[in-house]
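User: I'm designing a mutation panel for Putrescine importer PuuP and want to avoid disrupting the core. Could you give me a predicted structure to guide residue selection? Please restate the sequence first so the numbering is unambiguous.

Assistant: Good idea. Sequence first, for numbering, then the predicted structure tokens:
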Amino acid sequence: MTPTSPTERAGAPAAPQSAHLKRTLGLPSVLLFGLAYMAPLIVYGTYGVLASASNDTAALAYLIALIAIVFTALSYGKLARLFPVAGSAYTYTRKSFNPHLGFMIGWATLLDYFFLPMVIWLIGAAYLSAAFPHIPSWIWIVAFIVLTSVLNILGIELANRFNIVLMVVQLAIVALFVVLCCHYVTAAAGPGGLISAEPFFKPHVPFSATMAGAAIAAYSYLGFDAVSTLTEETIAPEKTMPRAIVLIALIGGAIFVIAAYTVQLAHPGAVFKDPDSAAFEVARKVGGDIFVTVFLAGLILAQFASGISAQASVGRLLYAMGRDEVLPKRIFGFVHPKFKTPALNIAIAGAIGLVALKLDVATSTSFINFGAFLAFTAVNLCVIRQFFNAKGSANAMSVIGGLLFPLAGAIADIWLLVSLEKTALVLGAVWFVLGLCYLGWITRCFRRAPPEVAV
């Protein structure tokens, strides 16, 4: 039960109930939000960097990342069924272990949720600046932030309807890119050219290079876990959320692997004029200047759709932490009485996004990686903890689903974590230490648990 105040125990009237998030999302909407967060079209935007890092084994890197992510997605699904509330890895760890660990995982996850929208806005601004060099990039960044903030504050339903349109356009461009690559390959080598082991296996490429690529590729899957923050706005979340989480990972993974596979067939090798814009080089090669224009428009739409989902997720994570009074409840636990959205949190996320005016994409993304893999590892460990806690009860899990799969997921996530570049590990460790200091302050040197209420 929710702790009672001294006034309530004395018999005074209870305070009115605070506003709650509104349940409006079904499985299709949750799937679209997760896929929008992942921005499938961005597989092309980051292809050159991934191909270079993996020594031209991008398709295999995406496949390895997918295997690791699927194990973790299954764990998220189990926990979403057990704890159908907002908060994602933060809530799962707090309930499975203790509030201190929950806070630290929530703090680490903030790296992902806070800085991912910033990276999305930065990438979108970079593309637009390249297309319109006479317009300062800060104008594009501010425009992205203002538009996504307004849509998210007005309500998840409005953002959802907007996402549907953007996702249809985005998936259509991905499909067209795949078809054009296939047409290019068959025109040069016949239908048999579409069947090759080269994108998955190259004897001279060390596995460590492919794993380095997999660590990069795994960032593209982040949307599967982000939708768990929408649990309290989802209809029948105990059934809908586990299905959505696994389906998002599988659908996204299939898109990434197929896209990388066909691009590698059309452009063998990892040599590009500019790895950051490699997809434009391939797009012009397989589709000409007209397709390049369409592709650029699609990338911008993808960034906008992804930014809407990313900002919505960070707003709800802050809401969960504010409602538990880990962060100041008056601000972070606020729900707008009319729109039924965590409006202040969305505005805060937008304001923090303005830091993008002073950062570049590389610096921002280095923050994201550490928090994501740490949260994934924690979620798998939570399932293992629940497996042992539920032994002999009606909620007991199978050895495979409750122990072996999450253990495989945790090992894979740790492997991806240590495969990150040193800069990401150092920045992540610094952020983690700052969180530990803040936790020590609010708990009087860990002598008491962080404040929490029932959810």
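For picking mutation sites, this is relevant: The domain at 25-442 is CATH 1.20.1740.10 (Amino acid/polyamine transporter I). The chain has a mean pLDDT of 82.
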